[in-house]
Amino acid sequence: MSHVITNFVHFSVPRQIAQDIATNPYAWPGGYPRFAITDDGACLCKTCCTTEVDTIAGSYPGDGWHVIASDINWGDTSLYCGHCNSTIESAYGGDD
After folding, report:
1. Which of 2, 80, 82, 95 could form a disulfide with 42, with the two C-beta atoms 3.0–4.6 Å apart?
2. Residue 10 · residue 43 · CB < 8 Å
3. According to DSSP H, which parts of 1-96 are helical?
4. d(Cα 12, Cα 60) in Å, to the nearest integer?
5. The pTM is what?
6. Cis peptide leading into 61, omega within 30 of 0?
7. What is the pLDDT of residue 28?
């Protein structure tokens, strides 16, 4: 079976990253909080990765929703979601 590659293949990658964060908001092992990174440098929280998955799936480079990676917030207590402005939980930032 052959596979056809189109210009739209890259659209599945942002969706997959967002869905992975929505499904697995904490890294294993360790339980460290994860977040998404868009191509314009913004961060998206686990909640927005869930509620905005269709927007992320239909995104294109440069539109502010194009998720390119995920990361762990190790200790930044002033890291905020670029969409809803909620604080992104940190692993070692002194959150009580």
Report:
1. 82
2. no
3. 12-23, 46-51, 53-57
4. 11
5. 0.82
6. no
7. 87
Q: What are 10-66's pLDDT values in tens digits?
A: 335 899 999 999 999 999 889 999 999 999 999 999 999 999 999 999 999 999 999
Q: Read off the tokens for 69.
A: 């990676």
Residue 55 tokens read as 């927007």
CB under 8 Å to 6, separation ≥6 — which residues?
A: none
pLDDT of residue 29: 87
Query: What residue type is assigned to position 67 of the chain?
Result: V
Q: What order of strands is seen across the sheet that includes strand 67-72?
A: 43-44, 34-38, 67-72
Angstrom CA distances, 31 to 39, 55, 59, 73, stand at 25, 27, 29, 11
